[in-house]
Structures are given as structure tokens and as C-alpha cells.
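Kindly go through one protein, given below as sequence and C-alpha cells. The question is how this chain folds according to its C-alpha cells.

***
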Amino acid sequence: MNITLLTLALGLLLLVLPAYALWWLDRRLLTQSALVVGRLTVALALTAVCLYYVFRWNLVWLNVVWVLLSGLVATVVYCRKRWLRVPIYISMTLCSLVVGLLVLLLMNVHGSMFRAQYFVPVMAVLQADALFVCRRGLTAFVLNNRQYGSLKEYLKGNGANEREALRPIVAQAVKRAFAPVLSMLLIACVVFMPSMLGGLLLGGVQPLQSLAVLAVLTAGGLCCAVVALLLAIVIYTKLKKD
């Protein structure tokens, strides 16, 4: 593939049809959509410039720094509440690095696992999964802990330790975080997986290998999300005590 600036501009002209439809239906919605598209364009342009040099230089330390910085920016933007950011960023970073390296090892990539073409996209997928689940789950844990604090004290008064007393609250938080993930998993397999599969096929990956890559990535994403959420709860609890 070789997309030039001219073909890119022609491709962006496809936005004319939905823009006209929004203008005809609701001009206020068109203005809001234009602002969102403008912000998205700026973000994509900055990301494209950074990734251009990351992939061009392909240095191990630079790839790791990019993953750490991009995860930090995503955490700050996605987690509006400050008390969420530290435990989520620490847990997401640790789990995505460990699980990501394991996923790359299972994929048996050519050359170093820290090459930008492998390391950066795999870490991005795992970080996105962990960030979505951690924010939803940790928020639910904090709210449940405040709401059902008397239940925790009751269990501790009947001989339960701290971990046993927090177990029902953690279970509710995990359930709340994973309910939308599990319900959308089948939809994602039917709707979104073909687009990801198409991207791998366009990149030159064989069909069976593409399916295997998606399967390993999906398993890694679920594993990373669960472990990151539990670790985020532990870190939040420790920080709150201190």
C-alpha cells in the first residue's frame, strides 16, 4: 500500500456525505461533530509524527518510553478523577508489560520482541483493555466500599480477615467491570474482529496466523484486564491506608 497526500485528501472527502446529512438534520450536532473530528485529527497527527520516529529509529528504550508515556496520557485523559490515576497507571503498566511480553513470546515474532512493529501495537491493545476495565471496576469498588462498609465491619467482627471481608465488595466490582466486556465479546467477534483481521491480512499476515494472533491477543487482553483490576484495587487500598 502507498497512500499519498492526494489519495488521503480524497479519502477524507468521504466525510462530506455524513456532514451534509448532519447539517440537514441538526446543525448543532454538525458543529459538535466538527469539533470532535478536529480534535481527533490533531491527536492523530501528533501520534503519527511520534510513531514515525519511533518506528524509524526502532530503539528498545525509545519503544518502552513511548509505551509508558502513551499509557500515562491515556490514563490522565480517560480517568478524570485523580484518585483513580495512580493505582490504575501502575497496575496497567506492570500487567501490560508482563502479559505483553508473554503474548509476544507465544507469537514467536521474528527478531527482538521489543521491535516497534511488534511491541508498540501489542502493548497498546493490552493497555486499552486494562484501562477500560480498571476505571470501571475501581470506581465500583470505591462506591461499594463506601456503601457496604457496614457489611465489611460485620464480617471482620465475626472473625474474617481484611481480604475475606473485602471479597464480596471486590466480587461486585469485578462483575460490574466485566459485565459489558463479556456481553460485547461475542459482538466484537462478529463485528470488530473482521476489521482487525482485515488489517492483519493487509499487512501480509497469513489468514490462519491472523486468527491465531487475534485469539492470543484476546486472551492476553482478558488476562491483563483481570489482573490489572485486582492489582489496582490492592494499590488503592494500600495508598488509602498510608
